[in-house]
Amino acid sequence: MCGIAAIISRVHLIGSNLCRETKEELPLEAKKDYGPVLVTIDNLKAALQRRGPDSLGSRKVLIQLEHGNLVEKAGTFFDDQVDKSRDTFLCSGKTVNCRISSALETVGTQYVGVNGMKSIAQLDFIGAMLQLRGLSPVPQPLEDASGNLLVYNGEIFGGIHVADGSNDLELLLHELERCCSSDCLEFNMNGSSNAELGKSIPDVLSTIKGPWAFIYWQEKSKTMWFGRDALGRRSLLVHWPTCTDSRFILSSVSPLSFTEKYAGSNSINGLNNEMANEVTGSTHEIGYWEELPCGIYSIEFKTSNENAHLMKEGLFGVVQKHRWRNPHLTRVISWDRLLVDPKVEHVIPIQASQLPLPVGSLTVHSEPAQRLLSALRSSVMRRTKIDSIFQTSTKKFGEEEMAPVAVLFSGGLDSMILSALLDQCLNPQYIIDLLNVSFDGQFAPDRVSARLGLRELQKVAPMRRWRLVEIDATLLNLTAETTKHVMSLIHPADTYMDLNIGMALWLAAGGDGCVDGQICNFLQENQHYYKYKSEARVLLVGSGADEQCAGYGRHRTKYKHDGWRALHEEMRLDMQRIWKRNLGRDDRLISDHGKEARFPFLDEEVIQTLLEIPLWDIAKLDEPVGKGDKKILREVARLLCLEDAAARPKRAIQFGSRIARESNRKNFGSNRAANHASAGSVKIDKYTP
């Protein structure tokens, strides 16, 4: 897990309205520029370093004019990790010339850069690193011999080979260096790039299996590339230039200082109403930050006589969104399932050519639950393979007490399956931490099911040391600072439901709680109940199971009213908006503790496997709750000998932990009043703990 950010200053963007969710075109001339009052490099660094505590670096690129040539002056800065009280940097730099047309001489500049040269644009790259792979630390931003820069937040689980002891950041930079420039991205009628020009950047990124977000400066084409994977499993927020802040900004997370202003009134820290309205969204649908939609984007920097009179900056960037190049990936994105309605499929024979994936990928002799179990086991194995990074943790905590991987654990169906599979994939010498949060002590439904789940896991895997970490909280003991901080992490999400989920998830991921040594068979200095904080850097999360296996109540409603096809469309909608509703938010909440969330149910092969299985084998919603919903996962649980978990009904974290009940009572007076007000979708105007 890493934190990444980039800022482009003094560049007019063309085509940005085609790449954002809101299609409103912004004016060419800014009405008024308030300057960088909301987001600064320093507060971005502070937010990002919580995600990547192992190293923090920045890179500045100045695009300048000298004798009619475009000149780029760059410097690299890595924050001192030994003594954070000192402002110490390591600096290296270089100058690269790029021949351009004489039209550049007519472009005016108002800013002076290094060595007295006039700067027409500035790009800042920031990268914070949580080292989970490689034999030695690799700081970000990373530069290659060609002058390309990469900041990357992700894991490569397939598509590009990453050998043991290798770092995927270095390997990806090497792959991208060999790509053609943006000028080569001309496609044939079938959508593939011209072979004689080599691979393009979208070609490379489309092959990666695993979660990622990236920002990449391609030196030879003077183009900045950025984006996030097709499912949106890693957060990347974007601020598109506006009249109040003309910069283009990308960041893994919103800084806390920004959200403190956001959460206030319309006279935020003395700003006038025009700025306040933009920040709070009280009069405009467009807020300062947006979740960047999944995809690959580029901004190519150009100058032109024809455009110079339109912009004082003298430089413009052409924004483009690029197509995915992997046909298997596009099928996952479209989320097409051919076998939807048993009444139709039993009448019309299915031809092999109609199947959504190649026939060779289907194991027709295997039962659906067995096929899914195999795919899930492989997914967990890919995400929990112990690499050299854990050697450091072993030295710190000792081999006997080491828990390198934890599970966000409610004792429900999804987390029980992940825990049982983790036991099969992880060396028996390691402890597995099960992280459970409650806002009602031992009485919350998730605490009850977690203790029951622990007992079942101990029966199924008696040789494993399971450690249930019980994290207790109440709204009364949460400080104002904690609430503001969590609000900054869920932003731009802004409803009470998001805050309730966010608070529960953030506390659970922190792993700071107590262990009942008696039920866990852990005794510490003869203490029955003792404090413990999980140091696991990898957390397994069950996101994606409900969306793909009809686990929500609305799925049952849709099926009862409109049948199988409507159910499929509702599930497809859930999968195609999960990046915006869940994944970006959850990534920010978990990674804030310097930990990485991994989502085995959202593995590409798991998704493909589920799409190959007929919908009526996925769920049977004519049957009662706890039986027909997520039918295939209940069968997987039984294959793992988790009979009790297989019959457990679904509860969302905000209800199972009972934070929703406490929040409703505090903010609406009662659960009844909250339900009447549809509290889950109510936006937070001002939250006071």
Automatic annotation (TrEMBL):
GO BP terms in the entry: asparagine biosynthetic process
Every Glutamine amidotransferase type-2 domain range: 2-322
Entry-linked Pfam families: Asn_synthase (PF00733), GATase_7 (PF13537)
GO molecular function: asparagine synthase (glutamine-hydrolyzing) activity
Region described as Disordered: 666-689
Domain of life: Eukaryota
Keywords for this protein: Amino-acid biosynthesis, Asparagine biosynthesis, Glutamine amidotransferase
SUPFAM superfamilies on file: Adenine nucleotide alpha hydrolases-like (SSF52402), N-terminal nucleophile aminohydrolases (Ntn hydrolases) (SSF56235)
PROSITE patterns: GATASE_TYPE_2
UniProt-listed PANTHER family: ASPARAGINE SYNTHETASE DOMAIN-CONTAINING PROTEIN 1
This protein's name: Glutamine amidotransferase type-2 domain-containing protein
Species per Swiss-Prot/TrEMBL record: Dendrobium catenatum
